[in-house]
C-alpha cells in the first residue's frame, strides 16, 4: 500500500535466514513450536507487566494463543493476546540480531563449523524459522497500552515493509503464506497432533477451530493442557512431556539427559523442575556464555531469567524452572541478589542438582560418564566455588589414573580408596599439561614401582581445582612431585628403613659432588625413594607450584 515503508534487514539476519531455511528443512515443524513459544513468552510478559500496571490488560483479560488456517488462501495464522510490539519493537526484534546466540552462531560458522540442525538448534532459531515453510510472513501487532497497530511483512529476501494496520485488541497475529508443497500445515489433524506433541506443556490455552465436515468453523476449542507443566503431578507426566518442555526452556534440539521435579513445602514453598542437558552447547563456557536457562516464576507468573541468582556458576549448564510461592511478585534483580530467602533457595536447588547427579552416578554410571564428558570440567569449578558441598563434589569427580592408564577410563576417588594398599594413607596424584606428559612422567616411578595408583590430572583446570581439595574421606591428597615421601603415606613397611639408610651413606660422596657442581641452581640434592628407574629427577618443595604451572606463568611473562 501507499503508506508502506521498505527496510533492509541487518546483513546478519539475511545470512541467518538462509541458513535456517536450508539447514532445518528436515525439521521444518520446528517453526510451529517457535511461534507458539514466542506467543507464550508474549503472554508471560503481559502478565508480568500487568503486575505493576493492572490497566494494561484492559477489557481483554484472557491470555491465549489461537491457531487457524485457510485452505483457499493457503495461510496459517498464529495469534496471541500477549504483550504485542510497537513499530520500533517490530524493527528491533524482527529486523536486527537482537539475540546473543545468533551472533555466536554466525561466528561458529565462520570458524568452519558445520551448519547442521544440531548446531543451529542450540541457539534457538526463533521467529525466522517461519520462512522454512512460508514465502511471505505478515506480522500485525498492537502493543498493550497503545492504540496503534503495525504490520511487518517480508518474503525473507533481505527486505521487509512496515505499514499501519487495524487491530481491535492488543497482541500479535502472524500470517504465514505457505510455500507450494507445504499443504500439510493446512490440515487440522496434523496441526492438532503437532500442538499436542510439542506444545502441550504451554501454560496458556492454545485454541484451534472446531472442524465440521472437514472444514474449520468459527468456534474455537482448547487443544492443550493449558496448565504450567511443573504444576502438574509427576505421575501424570510422561518422559515425552518432560522432554518437550525441556526443549521449550532450553532451545536444545536434543533430549535432556535427566531431570528432577520437586514440590517443596515448609519454610519455603516452591516447585522446581531442573534439567541436565545431554550435550554442552557449542559455545558453552565461552566469553559470550550468558547465564541463561533458569526461569523464575512467582505464583505461576514468569518474572525473569534468574540463573545467575538462583544457581551457582559451576551449575550453569542446568536448565529449568523454579516457581516460588513466597517471593514478592515485585521482586527485582537487586533484591534477588541480596535476599536471604534467595540464598536458601539457591542452596536448595544446588542440593537438588547434586542429588540428581549422585543418583545418576550410582544407578547409571555410563550415563554419568556421558554427563561428565559434557560438563565435568564445569563441575570441577565447584570445588573452589562451593566449599559447603566440597565432599559431595569430590565424590562426583571422575579422573584418569595409572590403574587403567587410559585417557578415557575414568575413576572416582572412592574407586581409588577401594584399591589403596594396606597401610597407604594418602591419595596420590600428578598434575601435568596433557595426557602424555602425565602418563610418562618420571615422577610416577616410585609409586608405580610400589604398585600404588596415581591419579593423572591432565586437564587445564586440574592444577587449580586440586588446590582446593586437600583431603577426601580423611585421606590426604598428595602431589607425587612435592616434598618428601614418608614411608607411612606410601604404606611401606619399616623393614625398608635400614636398607635405605645404608644406601644413603653409600651415595653421600655423589650427593656432595652434585651439590658442588649445581651450586645455586638447586635448593638441595637428596637421596630419594622416589625413583626406581631414572637416576634423578627434579622435585618441588611441599608448597611450591607444580612445574608446569611455573612454566605457564613464565610463558605469560611472570
Ligand atoms: P527469542 O524468542 O529467542 O527472543 P525469536 O526470534 O523467537 O527469539 O523472537 C525475537 C523477538 O521477537 C522476541 O524476543 C520478541 O521480543 C519478539 N517477538 C516474537 N514473537 C512475538 C510475539 N508473538 N509477541 C511479541 N513479541 C514477539
Ligand atoms: Mg522465540
Automatic annotation (TrEMBL):
SMART domains, sorted: HATPase_c
Entry-linked InterPro entries: HATPase_C_sf, HATPase_dom, HSP90_C, Hsp90_fam, Hsp90_N, Ribosomal_Su5_D2-typ_SF
Gene Ontology molecular-function annotations: ATP binding; ATP hydrolysis activity; ATP-dependent protein folding chaperone; unfolded protein binding
SUPFAM superfamilies: ATPase domain of HSP90 chaperone/DNA topoisomerase II/histidine kinase (SSF55874), HSP90 C-terminal domain (SSF110942), Ribosomal protein S5 domain 2-like (SSF54211)
Binding site for ATP: 34, 38, 80, 85, 93, 100-101, 122-127, 172, 333
Pfam families: HATPase_c_3, HSP90
Cited HAMAP family: HSP90
Similarity comment text for this entry: Belongs to the heat shock protein 90 family.
UniProt protein name: Chaperone protein HtpG
